[in-house]
Amino acid sequence: MVTIPTGYERLNEAGLRRWLAEQSALVARLGGSAETWHVREVSDGNLNVVYIVTGPAGGVCVKQSLPYVRVAGESWPMPLERAYFEQLYLRASEPHVQGLAPALLYYDPVRFAFAMELLSEHITLRHGLIAGNCYPNAARRVAEYVARRAFATSVLAEPFERVYDRLAAFSRNQALVRITVDLIFTHPYIVNERNRWTTPQLDDVVAKLRTDATLKAAAGRLGQRFLTVQEALLHGDLHTGSVMVSATDTQVIDAEFAAYGPIGFDLGLFVGNLLMAYFSQPGHESRPGERTTHAQWILTQVSEFWAEFVRLYDSSWSSARAGDGYPSAFFSTAEDQRAFALERTRGFSELLADTLGFAGAEIIRRIVGFAHNRDFESIENPEVRAGLEQRALTFARMLIVESRGFKTMDEVLQSLRAPKTST
Ligand code: SR1
Ligand code: MG
Predict the structure, then answer these.
(1) What is the DSSP string of 43-71?
(2) 325, exposed or middle or buried, with CB in 10 Å at 0-12, 13-18, 19+?
(3) What is the domain partition of the chain in residue ranges?
(4) Mean pLDDT, residues 352-375 taken together
């Protein structure tokens, strides 16, 4: 049962104007008066309502929770508190990811709505990649976002008491973690009324997936790790639709799934979504081979993303610790430093395995579960779509069951790379 507190109202256009007009800082940002503001609903995600409001001086973006899942309607009730957890996450991560996420401007705990900085020049990275655009810095900037926020909210950076307090606060975000547990780690592998796929083309593939004992055991391990490894504060839904890009800028949005968990979950969701962008490219061609170069470029972004994350995280892990993890007093001699470097290498191997496994789980759930993505969904011809989805599913299965067999990200991508043409 969803409790709707007294005072909550769904902000329609008139209500939104009134709501904004009550906040002098927002009025100043917009300029002019409430009747002159331009209001546009731009809800794109599955859960919430989002508006862009502009005035003569500038604009704001407003996001509000509904007491149900927006795309499913009232048949799927959902607590309103997700707006609370998203603003809590924005406040917690803001000092560490400045310039990589929009600023929170105002939170209303009664309407479960908040206003944030407007990204007027941006589109989602997902849309950009489908359109065939390149964003040379985006993957590295997302890596920086994950590395800085993950390190700063872990026991490597802070005494465990502070981490535990934050962990306790985010552990209440259970409705959203339930969605992840069901939609990513459970439903794709069983019969569930919310699942859907390109039918009848993938019917046999889906039936086989449900009887694939090796895959289910490995997927079970990933779900177990997601729920029990509480390394750092996660964004929790870091797909390419949660990244806004312009020609020169990258910003991460939509953190209502924030929770403590394994860092590889954020990394894996982003890698899985880049891989889906890669696999779906032939479906966006107007002539055969038109997207080959673009698809190969997307693979280079997977490599760059991983390399940049390791570079930044290792730099903090090796020299910026101020918490209880790997006490600095342990590492004074050259031998200590060598052993510590080996220990970090071991840590990154584990993290690579997590990242690959979670990437595979994300791909599978986007093709056979409830929440699909436009990379594949916008391919109109079901035969073409199913063929590309099947290729992605085969690769995803390999990522999940063989995740611990890879030493480097490049090794993983090798089989997808086009052979170099000799000149
Ligand atoms: C019911 S919510 C479905 C999906 O949309 C969100 O963006 C998350 O990815 C979630 O799994
Ligand atoms: Mg979202």
Answers:
(1) --SSS-EEEEEE-SS-EEEEEE--SEETT
(2) middle
(3) 13-117, 123-416
(4) 98
- What pLDDT digit, counting tens, does each position of 378-406 carry? 999 999 999 999 999 999 999 999 999 99
Strands of 73-175 (E only): list them.
73-77, 104-108, 113-117, 123-124
CA distance 282 to 84: 40
Pick the closest to residue 210 from 356, 388, 397, 382 (CA basis).
397
User: Smallest Cα–Cα separation from 92: which of 260, 216, 333, 242?
Assistant: 260
Closest of 246, 269, 236 to residue 138, by C-alpha: 246
**Burial letters 358-371, b for 16+ CB under 10 A, else e:** bbbbbbbbbbbbbb
Give the tens place of pLDDT for each residue, 256-270: 999 999 999 999 999
Q: Which residues pair with 117 in a beta bridge?
A: 60
The pocket around ligand 1, CB under 6 angstroms, is made up of 45-47, 69, 179, 183, 237, 371
For 1, 137, 163, 325, the CA distances from 92, given in Å and listed in that order, are 29, 25, 11, 20
Q: Which residue puts its alpha carbon closest to atom 5 of ligand 1? A: 46
Query: For the chain, what's the residue count?
Result: 423
| Paired strand residues for 260 | 233
What does the pLDDT look like over 136-191, one tens digit per residue?
A: 999 999 999 999 999 999 999 999 999 999 999 999 999 999 999 999 999 999 99
How many C-beta atoms surround the C-beta of residue 116 within 10 A? Answer: 21
| CA dist., res. 190 & res. 210, Å (int) | 6
Asked: is 123-416 a CATH 3.90.1200.10 domain? The reply is yes
Tokens 């504060």, residue located: 233
Give distance in angstroms: CA of 320 to centre of ligand 2: 32
Give the Å distance between the CA of 92 and the centre of ligand 1.
22
Task: Compute the distance between CA of residue 202 and CA of residue 371 in angstroms, rounded to an integer.
Answer: 16
pLDDT band (50, 70, 90) for residue 422 = low
Superfamily of domain 13-117: Phosphorylase Kinase; domain 1 (3.30.200.20)
The reported pTM is 0.97
* Structural tokens at position 347: 């840590």
Collapsing DSSP states into helix, strand and coil, what is residue 75?
strand
Q: How far is the CA of 370 from the centre of ligand 1 (A)?
A: 8
Which residue's CA is minimally distant from atom 2 of ligand 1?
46
